[in-house]
Amino acid sequence: MKRLKKRIAAALLSAALCAAGFAGCGSTPTWAVQDGERTLPVGTYICNLITSYQNAVMQADLTQDLFAQEIDGVPVNDWIKQEALRNTKGIFYVDGKLEELGVSLSEEEEEQITSLSSLTWSQVEDTFEPFGVSEDSFETAYAAYGVKMAALFEAIYGPGGTEPVSDGELEQFFNENYVHLEYLMMPLFDAVSEETDGESSEAEPVAWTEEELAEAKELFDGYAGRVSRGAMTMEEAAEGYAESGYAQNDAMEAEFLLQDSITPREDLASDYPAEFIAALDALEPGEASTLQLTLPNGEFYLLIYTDEIAPYAEEYLSGETNRNNTLGTMKYDEFLQAAYEEIDAMDVTVNEEAVSHYDPQEMFS
After folding, report:
1. What is the DSSP string of 61-123?
2. Of 45, 79, 47, nearest to 60 (Cα)?
3. Which terminal residue of the chain, N or C, has fewer Cβ atoms less than 10 Å from its own Cβ?
């Protein structure tokens, strides 16, 4: 389901971009892809163009002209069209695979399709509908496709699937690919608010003096040494910080100051600055260290800690959501690669007149 969420998010993020595009889209053939007696309307292809464009934006260097770049060695304009067509053909693929495996969507999954489609369509209708994208096409290309792909994934790798992943295999993957980390963040400034016409707003923060900075850093450096020696836990460090007078909000309890996360190592780069990851990677399990970071809202001093991940496996994987997410992290790329190979090899009829009518560079520039 995490890929479905990304597809929906991409549609929402790109909705505003579409308002300025699609010039000359009013008079085109009505269908895009045909497989036997079933035909997909051109609206499904347009939806996938929007998603593929947004995916390209997320992979590109935003300081450069998007359409002067390449993704995986393919010019961006061609990459967007290829991905859009692949995902449109994929609608036939997933239906065929589910039928082949004898899998029917549950009532809950059918309701999920309806609710996801309805909720998202209400937010993007005014953008999509003028370009000939109906709510039915939107539902087919987004909610239905995502839910069905998730059902197919479960039918292959879930319990009772054709290639089920055992609890032992999943735990081994978790131990090898996940990390447990904890950290405290100390702002090296005082936040200031000011009153204007009876309304409060943020003013320029007040930087600490050199003496204050030295004392604050000494506090966290001391915590790091004690945590690394086993003389203090991170919870105790958070309690000490909360009572030290250096916490920006004195009323904030220690449990809210301490950030605790179990996450795939592959996701660290999207969630944390490179300097944070480098400091984390330099730690042995059970060690803590400090780090100064410059963030958009100011300078911060951090206390970072990591330990062995294995003791967390049983409890973490006992939760259905965590188990499903870990299974997705483990197998979804493999699943998509296999699916894409089959989709690319599908013998379907593409309405070239309709597909060629939509050029991403013209639509989104």
Report:
1. -TTS-GGG-EETTEEHHHHHHHHHHHHHHHHHHHHHHHHHTT----HHHHHHHHHHHHHHHHH
2. 79
3. C
Q: How far apart are CA 100 and CA 204, in angstroms?
A: 63
Could you give the CA distance from residue 338 to residue 322 in angstroms, rounded to a whole number?
Answer: 24
- Sequence ranges of the domains in the chain: 2-164+319-364, 176-313
**Secondary structure class of 159 (helix, strand, coil):** coil
Strands 178-187 and 189-196: unpaired
Task: Tell me the sheet residues that pair with 335.
Answer: none
Q: What are the start-end ranges of the H helices in the chain? A: 2-18, 42-59, 76-100, 107-128, 135-139, 145-157, 167-177, 210-229, 234-244, 254-257, 268-271, 274-281, 313-318, 320-344, 352-355, 360-364
Q: Give the residue carrying structure tokens 């770049």.
A: 69
In tens, the pLDDT along 242-253 reads 988 887 654 456
**Distance from the Cα of residue 172 to its chain's centroid:** 24
CB atoms within 10 A of CB 197: 4
Residues 315, 286: Cα–Cα separation, whole Å: 20
Tokens representing residue 61 in the block: 């260097």
pLDDT for 26 equals: 44
What integer pLDDT is reported at residue 305 of this predicted model?
Answer: 98
Two structure tokens written together for 230? 């086993």
Q: How far apart are CA 210 and CA 278, in angstroms?
A: 26
Q: What is the CA radius of gyration of the chain?
A: 25
Per-residue model confidence (pLDDT) at position 14: 43
The low-confidence residues of the chain, meaning pLDDT below 70, are 1-29, 192-203, 248-255
Instruction: Give pLDDT, residue 196.
Output: 52
